[in-house]
Amino acid sequence: MAEKVLMKGNEAIGEAAVVAGCRHYFGYPITPQTELTEYMSRRMPQVDGTFLQAESEIAAINMVYGASGAGARVMTSSSSPGISLKMEGISYAAGAQLPCVIVNMMRGGPGLGSIQPSQSDYFQATKGGGHGDYRLIVLAPNSVQELVDMTILAFDLADEYRNPVMILGDGALGQMMEPIVFPVIDKKPIEKPWAAVGMKKRKTPNIINSLFLKPEKLEEHNQVLQANYKKITAEQVRFEKVLTDDADLILVAYGITSRIARTAIDIVRSEGYKVGLFRPISLWPFPSAPLQELGQSAKAFLTLELSAGQLVEDVKLAVNGVRPVHFYGRTGGMIMSPKEVAEQIKKVLSFEGGK
Amino acid sequence: MTVVFKRPESLLDVPFHYCPGCHHGIIHRLVAEIIDELGVRENTIGVAPVGCSVLAYDYFNVDMLEAAHGRAPAVATGVKRVHPDSVVFTYQGDGDLAAIGCAEIIHAAARGENFTTIFVNNAIYGMTGGQMAPTTLIDQVTTTSPYGRSLQNTGHPIHVCELLSTIESAVYVARVAVNNPANMTKAKAAIKTAFQHQLNGDGFAIVEVLSTCPTNWGMAPLKANKWLEDNMMKVFPLGVYKSLEVKKDVK
Ligand SMILES: Cc1ncc(C[n+]2csc(CCOP(=O)(O)OP(=O)(O)O)c2C)c(N)n1
Ligand code: SF4
């Protein structure tokens, strides 16, 4: 049985990728995810893999495009400004239906922002970022163990649906050290008969492409993509509910914020407030239905994020006006404390009724 | 009956969309002939650009990837790192390679990536309708240099071969033209050498091919050929800019 090891979040992602069979990594340094790039530079040669420090994030994601198109399990990682640069390639990869894993350890923005933790790329990750009607599968771990498990899951989902998958973390998660266990994988990698590997004895060439000059063809292609998104939405919604059964107020938070929320809940519960947590794990597909369902028992929602308010829009859409949705956020790399959240909880409950 | 001339197997039997007199078609054919002659068709992976040759994947009878504008060298890098034993080439225009993708080509060359780039320089953006390229000549009129390319405003054209030949890991850098049969023969030889370097595992090789764009130059094909000879060849002299014989220790 695999043993417990103590590892930093960013490095744990790297090792999880190795466990998942990823042998190609293309990246470019940026705080606060550089340890992952550095880890891969040490690790990839040990497993006969490729580590390449690209000249830019644009080049890195296009190397990913090439490697994925050629049939490999491949990963890149960056933080906010670097992910902005990758958006061109991400749109192309989504358009060409190329499986790959992209890690974004978010930092404060806009612009150069800061190197402190943030969750302000939620829109970019879940609503597009690049051009065109496309979606990424977006997973939001909240512990180092989940960074490991979801990185491995990300490679499987990418291959299964032929779609890029993003691991959306934040600087704090990447820097955090926790004890983890690496699972043992015995799954066979799936076949990729569509990949550009050289024709060998095949009769017709394999083409990796997102260009459809005829409007009918492009619409057809978009319909194929949308059907895939619909399938993903039906099959891959992930979330966690904590103490929601009797809750008057439901906190909604993902990633590091969900852990702060969890501590805040313990604080206020000890004072008799009935508060629970809903944690979206797949940010896309967003767990709208289970969240909406909670609106039947709870009086109100409070969305917590390290941003000026992005996740809150999806929460409002899910709740659809049936219950009030409040918002509390910090920006600029400021992390909310559990005490701060507890105060917000009491404020909302004194307004909405509860306890 | 012996067949003396036929369509290369590496070229699919479909009509090109290129304008009459455009050199893209000739260059495609030369690349396909080389792939045939080297017997590597079933092991070749091509990367198409954004530009008039964006549909190159419809013409070559090999596996191909369509890259974003200028990114073909990065895409080819990814492909080659996954399949080091395959034969990988990029086919790129001057807007693609010398403008938006300038960093990608320089760094692929600097890394000594073991693939081959066919660089088609027609001194203009063909596909988008004749705008100024980094290779547009001084005083050349384009839709975005309607008074002629101004040295003061936009500087000199970029000389890609001269630039890349200063990069140590580029093993073969040549500029050719396909304006007449003699030059076509030389162009073919250069393309073959570039591919052979790849087969030897030597590193990065590029062949720049001077090319016409009769449509956007606003000239009949023969006049366009003449304009290429009289003007482009002066600014972009033909020749082998770099040729390393020995295999380096790349990996
Ligand atoms: C990111 C991006 N920018 C701009 C374009 C528009 N565009 C398409 S082709 C082209 C110029 C291509 O010129 P060149 O590479 O010289 O090839 P040619 O058409 O002359 O063969 C441009 C600017 C694009 N498709 N993508
Ligand atoms: S526009 Fe110019 S480069 Fe494009 S196909 Fe026509 S002649 Fe060739």
Task: Kindly describe this structure.
- The complex is a heterodimer of chains A (355) and B (251).
- Chain A is an alpha/beta fold and 355 residues long.
- Chain A contains 12 helices and 15 strands.
- Chain A has helices spanning 9-19, 34-46, 57-69, 80-95, 122-127, 144-161, 171-175, 215-235, 255-269, 288-294, 311-319, 338-352, and strands at residues 4-8, 24-27, 50-53, 74-78, 100-106, 137-139, 164-170, 177-181, 207-208, 239-242, 249-252, 275-280, 282-284, 300-305, 325-329.
- Chain A has a 7-stranded mixed β-sheet, sandwiched between helices. A 5-stranded mixed β-sheet of chain A has the order 10-12-11-14-15, sandwiched between helices.
- In chain A, helix 1 (9-19) packs parallel to helix 2 and helix 3 (57-69) runs parallel beside helix 4 (80-95).
- Chain A is globular and about 70 Å long.
- Chain B is of the alpha/beta class and 251 residues long.
- In chain B, 36% of the residues lie in helices and 17% in strands.
- Chain B has 9 helices and 7 strands.
- The longest helix of chain B is centred in the C-terminal third of the chain and has 20 residues, at 181-200.
- The model of chain B has no long low-confidence stretch (mean pLDDT 96).
- Chains A and B meet through helix 3, helix 4 and strand 9 of A and strand 1, strand 2, helix 2 and helix 4 of B.
- The complex binds thiamine diphosphate (TPP) and iron/sulfur cluster.
- Iron/sulfur cluster is lined by residues 18-19, 22, 24, 52, 122, 126-127, 213-216 of chain B.
